[in-house]
Write a structure and sequence with these properties.
seven-stranded parallel sheet; about 45% helix; alpha/beta; about 425 residues; single chain; six-stranded parallel sheet
Length: about 425
């Protein structure tokens, strides 16, 4: 066994980045390393049972224990979707000033708030290597005097380039006039926010930020998670000395899954389909009820990730679901995935060789939806504007496209053979042992 290391992970609080780090951290833990999570405090009690050390941070002042917010976990999601869902109905360029910039500002506020806590954690845990899977920089991690690894578990457009569409736009790869308009609006709506954050970053002793980016690349190692068949490597090659692609990073920590009874009596021609819009998408009860109503009128069976508002809507007789599901144990069993286009779900569908229907809501979900559609791996639909028959026809087209299903199966076989989680662990372990 290699020399035991202490490895500190600091993922974004969202499920995608945290679950990605859990998968990689689990491999490192099984190799005998001490894995610490400096995650956000809402993960308390969920990481330690997996064998990790929890040394968590608050990104804002904690709510009083007797407050309504502390007592009703579902209220946060209900209020967030009530206030935010109208933004998801807008074109991406119109979301820049009213959703994207305020979201960046909230992330920045969290980074500033937890900066002293992260410095204390680093001093207390004495990590041999620090790993961050986030979209904003935390100077405490980059100035700790330890090797620093960045993970990008978003669509790789986030690593900018002149010959690829601007990130968060969902624009086609060959529609350059629209790229310029989106980039100009991004500059207009984000320049002031970025400049203030860059100044604060410098004041903390960290390197200046790249222009209009909120996160540095690591000078040691950067890992990004995306299948090669869908990547932009021909248009934006990356320095192989510092950047390493993982075609997938699928955790092995999910529980086993037994198929529900509704799948036992499927009629001939009936497929099994997984529906997951992530925590935020599934919290839009109106949207989930609409999808349930449309999909009820099909011959197929559905496994549905119901999310935080699971008690607020009923499933149809051809469906089964729960608030939380072991996604990586379910996707291998289904014929098709209907998703919001989060990077984890997108790459997991490729990992298991499943075509996709993508209903994007925000952030890089539009970029994943566009890439899947323009390369023929699935269908992108406008989440709030599609007609019922648009979705039903997309399902039937993808299920009956034998050539696509064979192609996806072959892609999945190849990706699984590469074992991205182990490769990520190898790379991080090497940095910890050698500093390179």
């Amino acid at each position: 066994m290699a020399q035991p290391l202490t490895i500190l992970f600091m993922p974004e609080s969202a499920f995608g980045p945290t679950n990605n780090c859990i998968g990689i951290g689990d491999v490192l833990r099984r190799r005998g390393h001490r894995v610490v999570f400096g995650a956000e405090a809402s993960w308390r009690g969920r990481l330690e049972p997996l064998g990790f050390v929890e040394d968590l941070v608050d990104l804002a002042p904690p709510a009083p224990q007797d407050s309504e917010a502390a007592q009703d976990a579902g209220k946060f999601w209900k209020d967030f979707i009530r206030d935010t869902a109208p933004e998801f109905r807008k074109p991406t360029i119109e979301q820049l000033g009213t959703f994207m910039q305020p979201t960046w500002q909230a992330l920045i506020d969290g980074a500033k708030y937890c900066e002293p806590q992260l410095r204390e954690i680093s001093g207390r845990q004495q990590p041999d290597v620090i790993v961050e899977d986030n979209v904003v920089a935390f100077p405490a991690l980059q100035t700790a005097g330890k090797p620093f690894v960045r993970i990008v578990s978003c669509n790789p457009l986030e690593v900018r380039g002149a010959d690829i569409p601007p990130p968060y736009s969902g624009l086609p790869s060959d529609d350059r006039p629209e790229w310029a308009a989106f980039a100009a609006e991004y500059d207009r709506t984000h320049r002031e926010t970025w400049a203030a954050y860059d100044e604060w970053i410098r004041d903390q002793g960290a390197r200046p930020l790249p222009d209009l980016e909120f996160m540095h690349a690591s000078e040691t190692l950067n890992l990004y998670v995306y299948p090669e068949v869908a990547d932009y490597t021909d248009r934006r090659p990356l320095d192989p000395a510092r950047w390493r692609r993982l075609d997938s990073s699928v955790r092995a920590t999910d529980a086993a899954f037994d198929l529900p009874e509704i799948t036992a009596d499927r009629p001939a021609g009936s497929a099994l389909i997984y529906l997951s819009l992530g925590s935020l998408g599934s919290a839009d009860v109106e949207l989930m009820r609409r999808l349930v109503g449309i999909l009820a009128d099909t011959p197929h069976r559905y496994i549905v990730s119901k999310g935080p508002q699971h008690a607020e809507f009923e499933l149809a007789p051809n469906m089964w679901g729960a608030e939380f599901l072991p996604q990586t144990s379910i996707v291998p069993l289904v014929d098709l995935v209907i998703t919001h286009g989060g990077n984890n779900t997108t790459t997991e569908a490729f990992h298991f060789g499943k075509p996709l229907i993508v209903l994007p809501l925000f952030w890089d979900q539009y970029d994943n939806a566009q890439r899947v559609d323009e390369l023929g791996f699935g269908v992108r639909l406008p989440t709030y504007a599609f007609e019922p028959d648009d979705l039903r026809r997309a399902i039937e087209r993808l299920l009956t496209d034998g050539a696509l299903r064979d192609r996806m199966a072959a892609i999945g076989t190849e990706i699984r053979a590469q074992d991205g989680v182990a490769r990520a662990a190898d790379a991080i372990e090497s940095v910890g042992l050698t500093g390179r």
